[in-house]
Every structure is written in structure tokens, then in C-alpha cells.
Amino acid sequence: MDTLNLKKIAQNVRINIIKMLAEAKSGHPGGSLSMVDILTVLYFEKMNIDIKNPKWENRDRLVLSKGHGAPGLYAVLAERGFFKKEELLKLRKCGAMLQGHPDMKGTPGVDMSTGSLGQGLSVANGMAMAGKLDGKDYRVYAIAGDGEIQEGQIWEAAMSSAHYKLDHLTLFIDHNGLQIDGSNDEIMGVNPIPEKFRAFGWNVIEINGHDYEQIEAAITMAQTIKGKPTAIVAETIKGKGVSFMENQVGWHGKAPSLEQRDQAVAELESGEK
């Protein structure tokens, strides 16, 4: 698929994120928008999946460790065809399929229930180890936020990933520089991220997380690495695509009003951002 098609898919995904959050009147736009391009490449280009058989045992897996970014994952899954887009506007409604954090039991295409930050890499390790033990060749992907890697469990898991040589595991760090209470630097500095993962025995690739060619190339390179896991440190923009949300910490966990929804959708449809 060429870059223009991927951009169009990502545009649709971002529009649906805005619409679903406005309808729900709650949720997390900033970190959902920042990882859309990564998810788009994974689900439309790179992951070996079957939308007609979401639990296929040989499928590639994705663990969204930053579970509050669920709107981004849901919008991509719906765009890919795992469920009807009508479900998106029921986000966070009582009795609806799509809740505030991913639920592997209730949502087709969700491989792990997440939400408690810091735990996703441990789960991805387990999936990757199970694949090795079972002689399977599926790959496991995880996405963590940069604020999330302040959690100690991430680093315990990082040691394990390298120790067990989980070379079919790829971790994306959504490095947008902001978290719920402010910038990473203000709350608890996490830099230099690449050097930290290299010190823990990982292969590390640094990319622009909104550049489709760089994302694809990094995933392809990770597939060739033997004997160690790969961390892809993706520099991203929180709130990517919406002018008044970009790089604004206040949009970490606040839904747009109907007026703001219309403004954001108009911007995204025009392609101005």
C-alpha cells in the first residue's frame, strides 16, 4: 500500500477518534492521535492477521500497554474491518462493546486487556515466550507511552526480554514528551530513552513516528534482528493532526466539545495539519 493510501486511512482514523470522544464526552485524545500512524502501518501493512478469525493462533499480536489510548486502537480496528464503525460512537456507554480501556474478551481484534500502566511489556514477553515454546513464528508488538516507562515494571520486563532473547518482540515507545500532569522532563525525566534500552541489551531504532516510510522500514529491520528484542523509539506529536491539541498537555484526557469536534474534523478533512 502506498503512502497516500496510508495517509487517507490515518486521516479517517483520526476523524473517528475525535467523533467518538466528543460523543462519549470523555476519553484520551492526545495519546490516541499521536500513535495513529504507527497503528495504521501495523494493521494495514505489517501484521499477519485475519479479520474473520481474530483469535487465529498464528496471528501476530499487539499489546497496547498505554491502554488509555484505546480510542486510537478501536478506530484502527474498525477501519480494518474487525467490527462495524457504528460501535465507535458507543464508546464508554454502559453495555457497549467499546469501553474506556481495551477488553480482550469483548472486542474483536484486541489481544490483551490493558489499562494499568507499565504491565504491557510483561504480557508481551509472555506471548513471545509462548510462541518460542510452541514453535510458532508469529511476532508480538507492544506500544508503551513515554510517561509510562517511568514505571519500574517496564524495566524489569526489558531485562527479561533481552535475557530470553525475544527477537520476535518489538516495542514501540510513543515518545510525545507529555503525560497527564505535564512534560516528562517536569514529572520524571526518562531521557535518554534509546541509550537506556541499548544498555538493557535491546536493538534500538529511532524514527519519526509520523513518517510512514520510516515506520515500515523500522518494522522490517526489526524482523531481521536475531538474538535480541527491538525497541523502536518513535518521536511523535501529542494530539497530532488537530492544531489546538498538538503538544498541549491539557488534551491528555479531555474530550472535545461539539464545537471543537467540528473544528477538528474540518482541519483533518482539509489536511491542513
TrEMBL record:
Residues 7-255 form the Transketolase N-terminal domain. Coiled coil: none annotated. The keyword Nuclease does not apply. Its cofactor is thiamine diphosphate. InterPro entries: THDP-binding, Transketolase_CS, Transketolase_N. Keywords: Metal-binding, Thiamine pyrophosphate, Transferase. GO terms for molecular function: metal ion binding; transferase activity. Belongs to the transketolase family. This is Transketolase subunit A. It comes from Propionispira arboris.
